[in-house]
Here is the input.
Amino acid sequence: MGVENVFITEKLDKLISWGRRWSFWPLTCGLACCAIEMMAASAARFDFARFGSEVFRPSPRHADVFIIAGTLTKKMAPVVRKLYDQMPHPKWVVAMGSCAETGGVFDTYSVVQGVDIVIPVDVYMPGCAPTPEALQYAWIKLQDKLRKEGSLKA
Amino acid sequence: MKNDEIVGLLKGEFGEAVKASAELSGDLTVKVDLSKLHEILQFLRSCPSLEFDYLPFMTAIDYSVYPKPKTKEAEAKLKEVKTKEEKIKEDEEKLTEAKEEEAESLKEEIQKLKEEIVKAKEEAEKLKEEAKEEEREKQFDVVYQLRSIKHSHDIRIKAEVGEEDIVESATDIWSSTGCDECEIYDMFGIKFKNHPDLRRILMPEDWVGHPYRKDYPLKGKEGDDEYLDTRLPEGQLKKPEHTRMP
Here is the structure.
């Protein structure tokens, strides 16, 4: 009954999207030095709680945002892919720092040249390492994406 | 204990197995024979007047593209001789057509050049003999840096190792060499016997090749990209186009 009603689905879509974008639960997973900035972002000075994202989940089953914070090596790549696969839908990925984006300065035999080779990425974040403010800017960009997409696409 | 005393003690105990020793700004380096390496390390650990009870690190060095300055210098000298000989030939050709006044000056020049050639050849031969020290039979060195906390002295032990040689593990003397030996095995491919758990420590266990060898390309071999292909779910790997150099 309600589903056919355009007014209700439209409003419900907006409500769900609003709820999602103000309660991201990131996965506790730091690969390299960017993780330090990620921790700083969630601590008192920068305070991720303002975005509803202070709950870093230790289990991928509870998380819906995956911050790839650091260099992804080939040895680690299958593990990251497994973690991503274990996360329930809807889920988003933020590639934090130059190494996660393109491999950065590590154009070598052991480093994956960009995490988008392994998993799909929503927000790319340059910097080496990006400041906590940059991570929060990426968060705002991710929220913008959700606002435009609505809840039905994810 | 002073450095020369340590060397004297080692030479008295092991004789010819202690091949050479060098000192640079107080750091003592001793080169030993691989077959006696384990005995020497055991002696350094247990001898009461040495008692090296702490091993800060252990590593290996690949000398396959190590610069050889004296060999290069000798080659440069021989090249100089060749250019001078060519000049003499040119001068002699000119001499046949030259007038009397010019001929004399040319003759003098040729004489000078000939003397220079003789000198340069002598120098080159000397350098060649000195350069023999730079030649190595084996590709790698294993390096043990030791320290005695009790007596506060240091020593560095080196031994030449080839690709097929098997080094006796020092885990029974210093247990901290366990991880170092794993890393050397991983990155250089040097094998150790009597090691409790010798396997790759940094690279994936089924990786092919040893990355710290000088002939290993920095950006990886051609087959390396396939490593991810085989381990990720089928159809989910995006082929990297922007990554590898041509």
